[in-house]
Q: What sequence folds into this?
């Protein structure tokens, strides 16, 4: 009897021990499981950080090419308007439907519209093209701006600041809306659109500085490109604008090749006139090219 009791208590102790051991094992397993999960989580987080760092490092190494050589068609437009009325320079009036055909061609053939202030960042592109609009008037807002938005393409426009809010010209509100779109950079076409090469040094300073300040106060964006009215300028012009602007635009001169550029104050353009055919437009585009050496 005594032995039987002893046996039962021994079995009970063994069972209790087994239960305790099982509970301990389960507990340890649970703890281990959490730890594994935790370390996996940590691994994932660490891994993400490392990848980001690697990408940043990779971007850093690709940022500075040794040299960039590019051919960029830069088209010069004036007024986007079907009916030019009594105006004599009819070639300056491009039909909205022609601009639409050109934008469609650019989009469908993978050309990349750039702003003029990206002319020193061309290594970022493969097939760059620039669309520039001189003088503009309200026709830009009515007929060109909606098409740029429709095709999501960039342009640079040159504004005569004394004309702002005047008859048939762009208002400050329109300029702000255009700049805020992010698709159009607003740059200077002087204050008065006079012949710079016939002005005194002081008059030229006023043209360059006051137009820049006015546009910057309207748009809140930096103005870095100067477009010489009628393509006329002299040594004073270049001397002055090098202190205030990063780029200067000629009226003509043909397709722009960076290897042939004296500097960024002599950027050349192609006249996109009313009678330019789509095949002519396309043949200029086909010369777009960027080659980069690291
Ligand atoms: Zn002009």
A:
């Amino acid at each position: 009897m005594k032995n039987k009791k002893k046996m039962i208590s021994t079995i009970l102790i063994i069972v209790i021990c087994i239960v305790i051991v099982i509970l301990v094992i389960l507990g340890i397993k649970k703890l281990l499981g959490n730890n594994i999960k935790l370390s996996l989580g940590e691994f994932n987080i660490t891994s993400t950080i490392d990848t980001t760092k690697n990408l940043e490092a990779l971007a850093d190494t690709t940022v500075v090419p040794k040299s960039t050589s590019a051919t960029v068609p830069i088209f010069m437009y004036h007024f986007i308007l079907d009916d030019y009325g009594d105006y004599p320079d009819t070639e300056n009036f491009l039909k909205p439907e022609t601009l639409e055909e050109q934008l469609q061609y650019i989009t469908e053939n993978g050309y990349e519209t750039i702003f003029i202030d990206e002319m020193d960042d061309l290594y970022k592109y493969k097939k760059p093209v620039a669309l520039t609009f001189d003088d503009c008037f309200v026709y830009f807002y009515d007929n060109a701006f909606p098409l740029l938005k429709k095709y999501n393409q960039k342009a640079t426009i040159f504004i005569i600041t004394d004309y702002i809010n005047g008859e048939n010209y762009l208002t400050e509100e329109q300029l702000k809306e255009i700049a805020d779109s992010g698709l159009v950079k607003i740059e200077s076409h002087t204050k008065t659109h006079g012949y710079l090469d016939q002005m005194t040094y002081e008059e030229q300073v006023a043209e360059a500085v006051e137009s820049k300040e006015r546009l910057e106060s309207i748009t809140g964006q930096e103005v870095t490109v100067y477009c010489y009215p009628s393509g006329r300028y002299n040594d004073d012009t270049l001397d002055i604008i090098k202190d205030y602007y990063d780029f200067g635009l000629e009226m003509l001169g043909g397709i722009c090749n960076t290897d042939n550029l004296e500097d960024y104050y002599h950027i050349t353009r192609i006249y996109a006139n009313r009678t330019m055919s789509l095949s002519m437009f396309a043949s200029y585009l086909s010369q777009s090219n960027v080659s980069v050496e690291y």
Notes: The chain has two domains: 1-63, 68-293. Residues 28-61 have pLDDT under 50 and may be disordered. The two ends are 96 Å apart (CA to CA). Residues 54 and 60 are 10 Å apart (CA to CA).
